[in-house]
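Box 3.1. Reading complex inputs
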Amino acid sequence: MCVMSAVAIEGVWKFYGDFPALKDISFNVDGGACLALLGRNGAGKTTLLRMLAGLSKAAKGSITILGGDARAEKTRARIGVLGHGIGVYEELSAFENLRLFARLYGMENPRQIAMEWLERTGLDRVSDGLVREFSRGMRQRLAVARAFLHNPSLLLLDEPFTALDDRAIAVLQGLLKGALAEGRTIIMSTHQLREALELATDVALINRGKLAFRGERSREMLEDPGWLYRHYGEA
Amino acid sequence: MRLKIILALSVLSGLILSWNLHTMFLKVPDELNQGAIFRIIYFHVPSAITSFAGFFLAMFSSVGYLIKKDLRFDSVAASITEVSFAFTTITLITGSIWGRVIWGIWWTWDYRLTSFFICWLLYVGYLMLRRAIDDPTTRARLCAVLSIFACVDVVIVWKSIEWFRTQHPGPVLSIRSGGGMAPGMEAPIWWNFLALIMLATVLVLIRMRQEAMQREIDTMRRYAHAF
Amino acid sequence: MTFLQQALAIAGKDLRSEIRSKETVNASLSFALVILMLFSFAFDPGSDQVREISGGLLWLVYAFAGTLILNRSFARELVNDCLDALISSPASGAQVFFGKCLANYLLLMVVECVSFPVFIIFYNARWPARWGLLLLVMLLGTWGITVIGTLFSAMTVNLRLRELMLPTLVYPMLIPALLGAIRLSTVLIAGEALETDDQIWFKLLAGFDVIFTALSLALVEIVLVG
């Protein structure tokens, strides 16, 4: 083992009562890879992502992220999370939202970072506007800025392209490509096979809480997004 | 095996209880000041102790759950709390009946009555919280935390209300004050204590079986929904 | 990153959005006034009776008004899944909790400080000679309400019956703190001398605060991270 995996998942189980939502999931994600986490609704993608994000704990097994425990403060400082909700406050302005999260992530100069990211997401003209007055697209771009502002080494995205408008998708894809070029790691769960597979270098398919497939993204997946599901989906 | 234990314990506690009733009503004379009603103490005091001991045991089991994350600890905590809750209710009702005869009122804000009532309310909250959460794992986690809080609070409540007001008759058991009741009168308390502890154990064991079945049913339902 | 810095960032965020919307403080304050008014029907507001129950009256108002603030504390994090964003940030559960405690504490103190003079006027009481001590009682008692309330607010945040569960859980838990606060407030508002016996109530209040603050900080991570 010469290169340390960015994410190492080993024998992870998660239960709701005695019902296993995740069964013995094990796989690694190398640093600099982009993993598309596929699976039907309720297969356990979100459950797994939440554990990686430190929002919930594995019942059995271990998750090591960037060499540390998933819930360790140092690890969390290096993870960017974009979940179902946008995770920004309605009663705060765009600038205040970003400054708050820059502070929480322990950034050196929260003010400057917030301004910088407002510019990068095209929100600098409305930086003092309250989020509740924002359009849907603007909110989403702000959410993207929140997830990226601390230059995370690992990005966790739950269904990132659903419900995004064109401009937000463009911003997000630009950022993701940039992140990959800088050697950062991305894990995203998705239904939008085409958008995700274009970016992905790796694919994992979860079916009924079990890991059904784990490998590199191949040519036929890109040409025929349904291919994977037909081969490994319904057992 | 467990079924045999349950059966044996319930038969034994039934026997002791009937023998106790015999002693209480036919052997022990009426108390000098209180008359016949004093006999209620034979149930009042043991159920009070049983319920209290139960709440502490439930707290330890809750801590056990938080450390081990094994749902069986949660079942134990839940079962013991429910049974203790029933005994708390018995304590309150018997106390109230006794108060009606001796003090002439059903309820008085004496410190032990008040403490018991607060304790009862705290665990009403616990039982309500259990019903309000659907996912068994979340339920176990949050209820364990609540159980710890409630138990710590019970201790503080007890002390603070004692300072606030005192009207309850002093301790009657010989181990606490070295006297109070005549030896012949006190014995049935201890026998009843034994019987009630056994009864409580039986109830807890039965309740735990139900919990285990409930978990199984819940799991099956989740499987059914998942596919 | 020190413990307080991040907690303060969260407290600041809560206070800032509350100052903008004023929704909970306004609701809590008008609720406090309504209860103060309702109590006047329960007994003769000018009589000596008021003197004997003044502390109880005051703290019931505070406790009721407090639940309104505490109910919203974590519920406001549900909009846009902000709670997830907070928990997945490097701020620990204890920091998130403590930050929200600070914000709630300040808001509740504001409500209390506004409704206290109203109480004095409505019930024809005299401004307490030793108002400093009364303020200390309010500071200690309110911290107790805040800590317990904020923890249970976190605990019930994802429940359907959130608004019903919080008061059911919080009030019985608060009884020792309320008891101490009521006893001391009654004596201080009546302008009577504090007896040596009454010191025990200060100890009770302080002890309650310390024990439950410690317990909450230790257990809140378990409550927030499943």
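In summary: The first strand of chain A starts at residue 5 and ends at 16.
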